[in-house]
Amino acid sequence: MAGESYSHYGGRKSSDWCSKITVVTFVGISFVGIWMLISSSFSIPLQNSEISSTLKVIKNLPGQDFPVNAKREEDETFQGEKGFRRGRSLKEIEDEESEGDSSNLRNEEENQENSESSSSGDESQSGNESEEVDSREKDSTSSGGESETGGEDSNTDENGDLKLETEKAKKGETENEIYPAGDQSEILKETTTQNGPWSTQAAESEKENESQDSSSSKGYKWQLCKTDAGPDYIPCLDNVQAIRKLPSTSHYEHRERHCPTEPSTCLVPLPSGYKQPIGWPRSREQIWYSNVPHGKLAKVKGHQNWVKVTGEYLTFPGGGTQFKQGALHYIDFIQQTLPQISWGKQTRVILDVGCGVASFGGYLFERDVLAMSLAPKDEHEAQVQFALERGIPAISAVMGTKRLPFPGKVFDAVHCARCRVPWHIEGGKLLLELNRVLRPGGHFIWSATPVYRKDEENVGIWEAMSELTKSMCWELVEINEDKLNEVGVAIYRKPTSNDCYQSRKRNDPPMCEEADDSDAAWNITLQACLHKAPEDSSAHGSKWPAKWPLRSEKLPSWLRSSQVGVYGKAAPEDFAADYDHWKNVMSKSYLNDLGINWSSVRNVMDMKTIYGGFAAALKDLKVWVMNVVPIDSPDTLPIIYDRGLFGIYHDWCESFSTYPRSYDLLHADHLFSDIKKRCTIASVFAEVDRILRPEGKLIVRDNAETILEIENMARSVKWKVKMSYSKNGEGLLFVQKSFWRPNQEQIIKSAIA
């Protein structure tokens, strides 16, 4: 028992001692924290703007006109809720904390009495001090001191600290400083701190009212475009007035871009009976006739299995002029002719010139090949529109007097199947343009009647082409005949070095000037000259890219660590960071969190790309991405092609060379804030509306101000705002286009004959 009693007693004593030590330590730390808080809260210099607002707030508080000084002496006292006095020892605090409940109650009563007695004294002192402040303000004004709106505040010193001087202080005498006590000190702290990250309701409401007023004042009164082209209006290709003034159309100038002086801000009407497009891959075989109500091509080319009208559908048997029995057979025939083509591995990105309805490009997806199909907006009405409605990449363009909107040395192959282009005339100017965009070592696949027909006209063209291609140092690597389709194909290979160019007996066609940049492509006049093959390993096109799909992730061999990337890092780090960023965005946001049904998305455009990271992150989905590099952005388009992706140069102050309702999803990363430096956002938004399908999606990443502006525009055209989010000045907007069209029309004079 004795042992038990001793053990129990000793344990209790130890427990009491530990408890006391714990309390002492806790109270000590609390005291030090309070002391530091009080000291720091009065030692921070205030800026002039803070001073004026603080004084204003304090004066508006009844009975709280206390003078404020940012400096305190170490022996000043601070009365808090428990009446702690600075400078007390830890032992004094321990003794107070160790007393019982009655002692605590007694202390609270004493504190109340002390508070009441001190408050009466404080009131009299504060009243006197208020009078002194008022008198000083009068003195400052009457003595010709600096005004409140100009120069330094008369109540602040050179460091911006608040100073409330009395006449005694001016004479060198000091006066006891008055500080608020207890709950009044909390009011002071609140009024002298900045808002930090917190906005006020007044500021938020004022900003929203300004935004609504701004939106209302701008009006956003959208009108319907009234043009001869109707629902198929392409502003830069349907400028009838400009086309009429052309001195000549012999080089297809009338099929080239002629943009209106002022960009359009009207909305293009929908075709009557327009429906949500049929999804991929079914769309490759059939589309709604009401969406592209053009039957002329079916009458002209129906016998060649281009397109047919079948009830409420337009159907595509998969044929073409050179492959009536189907595109897949023709595609395999080409690889059998030249196995080095190696579709989807060695040959990944090709250009299909004069594509028709793009069945060749549509079936190349079966072989993991991307085809940039192009054809003019001509008498073969809507052939590119058919392609896009089917879910096949295509643009409206012509080989005329200007360079194609692609960089040099980027396409793995160029294909022409009865493309109606006179390659051999005028010094081979048009074929030399293909040479510019074709990668060294790339192939030109020519399937046309001069290859296999022996009549006088075709023989003459073949001989002219043979002479031209030889002078260009192209090697004819294979000729073969497709027995099933009764057509032939000739395949040429572009040289990888300059040896042949240097050994030619005649410099015809001539070599381009050294200053001629083969990558310059926007609104550049064609030249009948040859560009040299790159000799420097740091130049793009100097080496064939890795095989697909590895090339989508692999750094192009010509990018060096000594080069600075777009984001300011070494080019390889920039490239990797961009890809990691978009993979992260795609996996953590776009694929799941936005609620997009990606199975209904086929045609995608990245309106302002850098390295193609957005498109590369989507490569495993059944979509294709048109990468657009704006003409005023860093020219990174060659990198995108080296990754096995494709794209185009464009100026977003003009209309894009595509039909209305071409894309399911548009992605704009800091495009709008950049473009509004050169043209109006309203015109760019109208173009977005033109090329986006009803119920199509727009994702915008931009600064918060621009996000709000685009959101207001989207709401004004009855689009559904799915998400709008801003943080730290940056924002994300996700909206969906509706079927709504305005009733009032705007006559576009440039587009009416």
From TrEMBL:
Residues 160-174 have a biased composition (Basic and acidic residues). Residues 65-220 are annotated as: Disordered. One of its GO terms (cellular component) is trans-Golgi network. GO terms for molecular function: methyltransferase activity. It is a single-pass type II membrane protein. Residues 149-159 have a biased composition (Acidic residues). Belongs to the methyltransferase superfamily. This is Methyltransferase PMT24. It comes from Anisodus tanguticus.
